[in-house]
Amino acid sequence: LQKLIHLLQSTDDPLIQEQALITLSNSAAFSVNQDIIRNLDGLSIIGRVLSDCIPRVKEKALNALNNLSMNIKNQKEIQVYITQVCKDIESAPLNSDLQLAGLRLLTNMSVTSDYHHMMINSIPRFLHLLSEGNERTQV
Questions:
Q1: Dist CA 128 CA 34 (whole Å)
Q2: Mean pLDDT of residues grouped by 10 in the chain (139 residues)?
Protein backbone atom coordinates (compact mmCIF):
# COMPACT_ATOMS: atom_id res chain seq x y z
CA LEU A 1 0.00 0.00 0.00
CA GLN A 2 2.83 2.37 0.81
CA LYS A 3 4.41 1.80 -2.60
CA LEU A 4 1.07 2.32 -4.37
CA ILE A 5 0.48 5.59 -2.54
CA HIS A 6 4.01 6.74 -3.34
CA LEU A 7 3.53 5.75 -6.99
CA LEU A 8 0.27 7.69 -7.16
CA GLN A 9 1.96 10.72 -5.63
CA SER A 10 5.00 10.62 -7.88
CA THR A 11 3.55 10.07 -11.35
CA ASP A 12 1.61 12.19 -13.81
CA ASP A 13 0.90 9.24 -16.11
CA PRO A 14 -2.90 8.83 -16.15
CA LEU A 15 -2.73 5.11 -16.92
CA ILE A 16 -0.49 4.44 -13.93
CA GLN A 17 -2.64 6.69 -11.75
CA GLU A 18 -5.77 4.80 -12.79
CA GLN A 19 -4.25 1.41 -12.02
CA ALA A 20 -2.89 2.57 -8.66
CA LEU A 21 -6.29 4.02 -7.73
CA ILE A 22 -8.12 0.85 -8.77
CA THR A 23 -5.78 -1.24 -6.63
CA LEU A 24 -6.12 1.13 -3.67
CA SER A 25 -9.90 1.08 -4.09
CA ASN A 26 -9.97 -2.72 -4.09
CA SER A 27 -7.64 -2.82 -1.08
CA ALA A 28 -9.96 -0.48 0.81
CA ALA A 29 -12.61 -3.22 0.82
CA PHE A 30 -10.78 -4.56 3.89
CA SER A 31 -11.16 -2.47 7.03
CA VAL A 32 -7.56 -3.00 8.16
CA ASN A 33 -6.37 -1.49 4.87
CA GLN A 34 -8.63 1.54 5.36
CA ASP A 35 -6.68 2.43 8.49
CA ILE A 36 -3.32 1.74 6.86
CA ILE A 37 -4.14 3.95 3.85
CA ARG A 38 -5.23 6.77 6.18
CA ASN A 39 -2.11 6.42 8.34
CA LEU A 40 0.09 6.61 5.22
CA ASP A 41 -1.56 9.94 4.28
CA GLY A 42 -3.25 8.14 1.40
CA LEU A 43 -6.54 10.00 1.79
CA SER A 44 -5.01 13.38 1.05
CA ILE A 45 -2.92 11.96 -1.80
CA ILE A 46 -6.01 10.39 -3.37
CA GLY A 47 -7.94 13.59 -2.66
CA ARG A 48 -5.38 15.64 -4.58
CA VAL A 49 -6.17 13.55 -7.66
CA LEU A 50 -9.70 15.00 -7.60
CA SER A 51 -8.23 18.16 -9.12
CA ASP A 52 -7.09 16.14 -12.15
CA CYS A 53 -8.79 17.13 -15.40
CA ILE A 54 -8.93 13.61 -16.79
CA PRO A 55 -12.41 12.28 -15.92
CA ARG A 56 -11.33 8.60 -15.78
CA VAL A 57 -8.64 9.35 -13.22
CA LYS A 58 -10.96 11.54 -11.15
CA GLU A 59 -13.61 8.81 -11.26
CA LYS A 60 -11.14 6.21 -9.96
CA ALA A 61 -10.15 8.58 -7.14
CA LEU A 62 -13.81 9.02 -6.21
CA ASN A 63 -14.28 5.24 -6.21
CA ALA A 64 -11.28 4.82 -3.91
CA LEU A 65 -12.54 7.52 -1.53
CA ASN A 66 -15.97 5.91 -1.62
CA ASN A 67 -14.55 2.59 -0.39
CA LEU A 68 -12.41 4.38 2.16
CA SER A 69 -15.43 6.34 3.46
CA MET A 70 -16.81 3.23 5.16
CA ASN A 71 -14.63 4.19 8.12
CA ILE A 72 -15.66 7.01 10.52
CA LYS A 73 -12.08 8.25 10.97
CA ASN A 74 -11.65 8.35 7.20
CA GLN A 75 -14.89 10.28 6.81
CA LYS A 76 -13.48 13.02 9.03
CA GLU A 77 -10.64 13.48 6.53
CA ILE A 78 -12.70 12.90 3.38
CA GLN A 79 -15.26 15.53 4.36
CA VAL A 80 -12.92 18.30 3.15
CA TYR A 81 -13.65 17.14 -0.42
CA ILE A 82 -17.46 17.20 -0.20
CA THR A 83 -17.88 20.68 -1.67
CA GLN A 84 -15.59 19.84 -4.58
CA VAL A 85 -17.40 16.52 -5.17
CA CYS A 86 -20.74 18.35 -5.26
CA LYS A 87 -19.35 20.74 -7.89
CA ASP A 88 -17.93 17.84 -9.90
CA ILE A 89 -21.30 16.08 -9.85
CA GLU A 90 -22.99 19.24 -11.09
CA SER A 91 -20.50 19.79 -13.91
CA ALA A 92 -20.14 16.15 -15.02
CA PRO A 93 -22.14 14.90 -18.00
CA LEU A 94 -25.52 13.50 -17.02
CA ASN A 95 -25.38 9.78 -16.14
CA SER A 96 -21.59 9.66 -16.59
CA ASP A 97 -19.41 7.29 -14.60
CA LEU A 98 -17.78 10.33 -13.01
CA GLN A 99 -21.13 11.66 -11.85
CA LEU A 100 -22.15 8.26 -10.48
CA ALA A 101 -18.87 7.87 -8.61
CA GLY A 102 -19.40 11.25 -6.93
CA LEU A 103 -22.97 10.37 -6.02
CA ARG A 104 -21.87 7.06 -4.48
CA LEU A 105 -19.29 8.84 -2.33
CA LEU A 106 -21.85 11.39 -1.13
CA THR A 107 -24.28 8.57 -0.35
CA ASN A 108 -21.73 7.02 2.03
CA MET A 109 -20.84 10.39 3.50
CA SER A 110 -24.51 11.15 4.20
CA VAL A 111 -25.27 7.97 6.16
CA THR A 112 -24.89 10.03 9.32
CA SER A 113 -26.06 13.62 9.55
CA ASP A 114 -22.54 14.90 10.27
CA TYR A 115 -21.94 16.25 6.76
CA HIS A 116 -25.43 17.04 5.45
CA HIS A 117 -24.87 20.77 5.90
CA MET A 118 -22.02 20.59 3.40
CA MET A 119 -24.31 19.18 0.68
CA ILE A 120 -27.40 21.29 1.24
CA ASN A 121 -26.66 23.81 -1.53
CA SER A 122 -26.53 20.98 -4.06
CA ILE A 123 -29.99 19.61 -3.25
CA PRO A 124 -31.70 21.41 -6.19
CA ARG A 125 -29.18 19.85 -8.60
CA PHE A 126 -29.66 16.43 -7.01
CA LEU A 127 -33.42 16.77 -7.50
CA HIS A 128 -32.76 17.61 -11.15
CA LEU A 129 -30.65 14.44 -11.46
CA LEU A 130 -33.48 12.48 -9.87
CA SER A 131 -35.92 13.68 -12.52
CA GLU A 132 -33.60 13.75 -15.56
CA GLY A 133 -31.12 10.98 -14.87
CA ASN A 134 -31.34 7.38 -15.93
CA GLU A 135 -32.21 4.59 -13.50
CA ARG A 136 -28.61 4.16 -12.29
CA THR A 137 -28.35 7.86 -11.50
CA GLN A 138 -31.74 7.90 -9.80
CA VAL A 139 -30.82 4.98 -7.55
A1: 33
A2: 97 96 96 96 97 94 97 96 97 97 97 94 95 95
